[in-house]
Amino acid sequence: RILELDLRRALANDEFELYYQPLVNLKTGRITTCEALLRWNHPMRGTVSPIDIIPVAEEMGLIVDLGRWILRRACMECMRWPDGVSVAVNFSSQQFHQRDVIDEVHYALQASGLPAERLEIEITESSLMRNTQWTLDALQQLRSAGVRIALDDFGTGYSSLSYLHNFPLQKVKIDRSFLVGIETHRPLTLLRGVARLSAELGMSVVVEGVETNEQLELIGADGTVTEAQGYLFSRPVPASRIRELLTASH
Ligand code: G
Ligand code: G
Ligand code: MN
Ligand code: NA
Predict the structure, then answer these.
(1) Side-chain-side CA neighbours of residue 176 (13 Å)
(2) Pick from 87, 74, 59: which is nearest to 16 by CA?
(3) In principle, which of 93, 127, 139, 208 could form an S-S bond with 176, CB 3.0–4.6 Å?
(4) Residue 37 beta carbon below 6 angstroms from any ligand 1 atom
(5) Rounded distance from Cα 92 to ligand 3 centre (Å)
(6) Distances in Å between the alpha carbon of 48 and those of 52, 169, 224?
(7) Which part of the chain is the EAL domain (predicted)?
(8) CA dist 170 to 48, 94, 204, 215, Å?
(9) Among the atoms of ligand 1, which is closest to the Cα of residue 50?
(10) Is the CB of 90 under 6 A from ligand 1?
């Protein structure tokens, strides 16, 4: 079990690292955005997954400090990428529902010099389930600032289609579970329906977890899906490697 002390020490000792996974525009084939994914290089355990880190950090109240580190690091690294490329940062529900969340975002942009248009914040449906007026205000403020909001893992959890039109969201990331089996037995009906609805509501549509060319062809066939992400293009890679990929693609 990870302890609070471990996390604090790790933050102080610079043991956290951000990996990046690209999102590719289906029309141009170019990388539009890279999603930051937390890794912990633990001196004894090796690489620790964010699935094990984030919940402990939340429980321990360290999510504010850790979230701040992630956001600032991601903005700083994005500054080293070609101009058109954005960075996507995951916010847990607890992180998003901080009183100071807007200030944190402004500060990270200011400190790094990154234009707001190059920052995308990924929230999940669980962030939209509570404090509706507060949530709406926060999303609107972020939008006014120029930051984009993506709804991550859409279609898992307690999905509600009403989220898509009740909140100002610019992007929907359709969960990779929608892709499982589409080459053989699963009809594309559900994925296409969600994609079309999102597109008609003015959002860009991302399909996550694309692993095969066959899946790519199927999701791209009707032109609704804007971007794709998945092992077919790249696994999450360290910052130095993502810079190489970006240089090659731009
Ligand atoms: O990269 P990986 O597949 O191990 O990520 C597992 C889960 O952890 C994903 O759901 C991802 O969204 C989440 N995650 C990765 N990095 C971060 C982060 O920096 N902050 C938060 N809140 N979640 C993250
Ligand atoms: O919840 P979120 O979408 O942020 O999770 C991102 C995680 O999904 C990454 O940590 C990555 O390891 C995983 N992932 C990304 N692409 C693929 C893929 O093509 N296949 C599978 N199985 N997992 C993926
Ligand atoms: Mn994500
Ligand atoms: Na996801």
Answers:
(1) 11
(2) 74
(3) 208
(4) yes
(5) 10
(6) 7, 31, 36
(7) 1-250
(8) 31, 21, 6, 24
(9) 8
(10) yes
CA distance 248 to 205: 25
Cα separation, 100 vs 18, in Å, equals: 23
Provide ipTM, 2 decimals. 0.97
The stretch 120-140 carries a mean pLDDT of 92
Relative to the CA of 70, which ligand 1 atom is closest? 19
Phi and psi torsions of 122, nearest 5°: -100, 120
34-43 mean pLDDT: 95
Is pLDDT at 1 greater than 80 in this prediction?
A: no
Q: Which CATH number fits domain 4-249: 3.30.70.270, 3.20.20.450, 3.90.550.10, 1.20.950.20?
A: 3.20.20.450
Distance 18 CA to ligand 2 centre (A): 14
- For residue 54 and ligand 1, the question of a CB distance below 6 A is answered with yes
How far, in Å, CA of 37 to CA of 53, rounded? 12
Task: Tell me the ligand closest to 174's alpha carbon.
Answer: 4
Residues 6 or more apart whose CB falls under 8 angstroms from that of 178 comprise 155, 190, 191, 194, 207
92: left (phi over 0), alpha (psi -120 to 50) or beta: beta
Closest CA to ligand 2's atom 8 = 209
Over residues 72-95, the pLDDT tens digits come to 999 999 999 999 999 999 999 999
